[in-house]
Amino acid sequence: MKQSEPMRRGSGLFPTDPALLAAPLVFIREEHLRERQICAVMDGLAASASLDLKAARTVLHFLGELCLHIRDMVEDLFPLLLCRCTTEDAIDCTITRIRIDHDAVNRLLPRLRAALARCLDAGADLSLGEATMLMRFAGHVRHQLAAENAILLPL
């Protein structure tokens, strides 16, 4: 029986293999797959009537990794693309669009971390407002992933 691609590539529950950093575009593609998988975990948490402790811990751990990924994009990839792309690539418009989602993620991040930590510490469920915030957060992550995968990585 042949394993599906996501099964061979991992569940998304563990960080992307650092050995892939030898091939940065492969690493980014795998990290983006993981981000999409974690967004699905976020959706499940937001929709669940009771807190899944393992999923909440996974998301909370991932949030720290996401900060590093965003910082790498902003500090390393974006300047490189701005330097190397031609005017007709209009990369500045795409980067601006992605930065808007990054800003939204960064604004929601502290409250989301606090909400998940509170739930884990107290053994409590997410409030309706926290669940809504989690879904909004996942939406922003997906939006920036779509632009990065469709426009930036091919360049």
Describe the structure concisely.
By secondary structure, the chain is mostly helical. The chain has 5 helices and no strands.
Oligomerization category of the chains in this entry: single chain
Strand content: under 5%
> What is the H/E order?
HHHHH
Please give the number of β-strands: 0
Helical fraction equals: over 70%
Count of helical stretches: 5
Instruction: Give the overall shape.
Output: elongated
The major β-sheet equals: none
Radius of gyration: 17 Å
Distance linking N and C termini: 36 Å
- Which regions are unreliable across 5 or more consecutive residues at pLDDT < 50? 1-8
Mean pLDDT, nearest integer? 87
Structural class based on helices, strands and sheet pairing: mainly alpha
Describe the structure.
- With 155 residues, the protein is mainly α.
- Helix content is 76%, strand content 0%.
- It is built from 5 helices and no strands.
- Helix 3 runs antiparallel to helix 4 and helix 4 runs antiparallel to helix 5.
- The longest helix is centred in the middle third of the chain and has 32 residues.
Question: What are its keywords?
Answer:
mainly alpha; 5 helices; 0% strand
What's the SSE blueprint?
Blueprint: H1 5-9, H2 24-47, H3 53-84, H4 91-122, H5 128-152
Helix pairs in contact: 2-3, 2-5, 3-4, 4-5
